[in-house]
Specification:
Elements (H helix, E strand, L loop, with lengths): L18 E6 L5 E12 L2 E13 L11 E6 L10 H5 L2 H13 L11 H12 L1 H8 L19 H6 L1 H8 L55 H7 L1
Antiparallel strand pairs: 1-2, 2-3, 3-4
Length: 232
Amino acid sequence: MDGPPCKCKDAATHGPPDAHGQTQETAAKKVEVEAWNHLHFKDARHLLVSVVRGTRQAAKDTKRDPRVSWFLFEGQQMPPLEEITPTYGRRYSQEHGYRVDKQDLLWESVRLRTPEAFENWTDILACVPNQLCLARPFVQAMRQPWESKQRPATLQQVRRAMGRILVELGTPAKPSQPRGKSPGWPSGRQREIAQTYPVIKKEPSARKTGSPKPKRRARYTTVTLTEVLRVV
């Protein structure tokens, strides 16, 4: 805390670790895990973090198979060091889970006015994967022609077949009203302006002084076939 800087790429600045652990990827592959606690960023002194380094001795030290990996933890209680590297292996599935939430379950597509309403929508949407897992043995997965039939059904494939289960279960919602002319806004009821919130936007990074200007794109002129034959 407010001591000498700690840089991941400079081993001379690390110092002795505060904690050390070891785990096994396989019977012949060991992973050493070291942690440095009570660190903070230069521009955020109030945010205490822990830096964890995992060293895989049998790795090829390539981009896809790195030997040294760095992790950052911020929270109340850090998990045991032996669980950090195995948990990181689940990142691929977690990222695909976020993709399903956004693309298939419309996590970001709803139009809500308050952050509290969006938190409630997030809690409701978090229950959907559990329902899909429970419904997996009761539906016949609908697979696309390019999807393998040898693998277990994914949540997307189960979701495509959920319509049949919903028809059998029914719904507690009231039947929709017949189409007709809307009664309009009740007379005497006051209109209230909806509360708005500022939109968080990322500003484009300023171009450094002396850097070359971006090249302009070439302009093309549309020419008809008649004009081409005329020139020929």
